[in-house]
């Protein structure tokens, strides 16, 4: 389990600032939820955290080491990334996709060891894919593809994992199983989510993005308040606790009559980094 820290991270395209001075941290096995409306910058931030894009300004650290000082192979051994809608694998089976998770641990021409095979078996089992391991990737449903990507990530035995809307396409049972699994693994996790109730239930901390800025950050209880949700999402909600479990519950009432406005920089500057 490691710590991922982003400090004053910014990224622009053609003069448009898409991420603006983001501070956040995910520490020691915690699950941090990235929330925010469509286009608020969640996927972009995950790509910067993964080193798939270079920031214009600011830094990303894995523990005490700057991301770009980490050798690619070292990073590949510790960090797993589950992106949205991966369509790259065509003529391969589910098992072969999951075996890719062992690539950073093998020499170029080495075959899988018994140890690798056991890890792959366990990853298939944990994602409910054992019975589908010989299926061709191209024949899978959206949810099965999503679970295969998660299994590949698990086969990496990562210290940190970044996931972009991993519950997309999943039925309710698999959504709950995926998040149960993520939160019980000894892995530091940053996960972009749209479902605020799932975020409230599974995340230790949430970071809410709005127009590329941090609108709020902290525990779900502290952050997911009606005013914040109205100003960021433009939706009126009721927030209470479910009486049998005591879990935070967000009930969506209605979209507000006016579209949400960009939060002031003053609101942003009041947000402390999380961890
Ligand atoms: N390479 C790019 N060139 C131009 N604009 C981009 C690029 N990448 C992202 N954007 C824009 O940046 C904004 C943030 O996109 P991003 O995909 O990070 O949002 P998101 O919060 O993940 O959205 P969603 O919830 O819809 O997945 C969007 O307006 C998007 O169109």
Describe the overall structure:
There is one protein chain. By secondary structure, the chain is an alpha/beta fold. The chain is built from 10 helices and 12 strands. It has helices spanning 42-50, 72-78, 94-99, 114-126, 142-155, 172-184, 196-202, 220-223, 226-233, 265-269, and strands at 4-13, 16-26, 31-35, 57-62, 65-66, 79-82, 160-164, 188-192, 205-210, 213-218, 235-241, 248-255. It is globular, with a radius of gyration of 19 Å. Residues 264-275 have low confidence and may be disordered.
Q: Which series of helices and strands comes N to C?
A: EEEHEEHEHHHEHEHEEHHEEH
Radius of gyration: 19 Å
How far apart are the termini?
Answer: 13 Å
Q: In terms of per-residue confidence, which ranges show pLDDT below 50 for 5 or more consecutive residues?
A: 264-275
Q: What's the mean pLDDT score?
A: 89
* Total number of helices: 10
Main sheet specs: 6 strands, mixed
Unique bound compounds: adenosine-5'-triphosphate
Structural class: alpha/beta
Shape: globular
Number of strands: 12
The largest beta-sheet arranges its strands as 6-7-8-3-9-10
The percent range for strand residues is: 25-35%
Helix content: 25-40%
Layout of helices and strands:
Elements: E1 4-13, E2 16-26, E3 31-35, H1 42-50, E4 57-62, E5 65-66, H2 72-78, E6 79-82, H3 94-99, H4 114-126, H5 142-155, E7 160-164, H6 172-184, E8 188-192, H7 196-202, E9 205-210, E10 213-218, H8 220-223, H9 226-233, E11 235-241, E12 248-255, H10 265-269
Parallel strand pairs: 3-8, 3-9, 6-7, 7-8
Antiparallel strand pairs: 1-2, 1-4, 4-5, 9-10, 11-12
Helix pairs in contact: 4-5
């Amino acid at each position: 389990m490691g710590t991922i820290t982003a400090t004053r991270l910014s990224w622009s395209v053609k003069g448009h600032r898409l991420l603006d001075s983001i501070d956040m941290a995910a520490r020691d096995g915690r699950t941090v939820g990235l929330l925010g409306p469509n286009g608020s910058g969640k996927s972009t931030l995950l790509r910067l955290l993964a080193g798939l894009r270079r920031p214009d300004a600011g830094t990303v650290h894995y523990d005490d080491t700057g991301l770009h000082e980490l050798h690619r192979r070292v990073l590949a051994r510790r960090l797993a990334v589950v992106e949205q809608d991966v369509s790259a694998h065509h003529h391969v089976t589910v098992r072969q996709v999951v075996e890719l998770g062992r690539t950073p641990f093998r020499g170029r021409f080495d075959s899988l060891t018994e140890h690798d095979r056991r890890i792959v078996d366990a990853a298939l089992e944990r994602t409910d894919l054992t019975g589908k391991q010989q299926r061709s990737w191209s024949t899978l449903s959206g949810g099965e593809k999503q679970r295969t990507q998660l299994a590949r990530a698990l086969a990496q035995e990562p210290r940190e994992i970044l996931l972009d809307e991993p519950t997309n396409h999943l039925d309710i049972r698999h959504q709950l199983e995926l998040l149960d699994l993520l939160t019980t693994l000894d892995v530091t996790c940053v996960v972009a989510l749209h479902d605020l109730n799932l975020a409230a239930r599974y995340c230790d901390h949430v970071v809410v993005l709005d127009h590329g800025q941090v609108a709020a950050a902290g525990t779900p209880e502290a952050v997911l308040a009606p005013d914040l949700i109205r100003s960021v999402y433009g939706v009126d909600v009721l927030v209470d606790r479910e009486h049998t479990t005591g879990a935070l519950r967000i009930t969506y009432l209605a979209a507000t009559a006016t579209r949400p406005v960009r939060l002031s920089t003053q609101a942003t500057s009041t947000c402390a980094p999380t961890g």
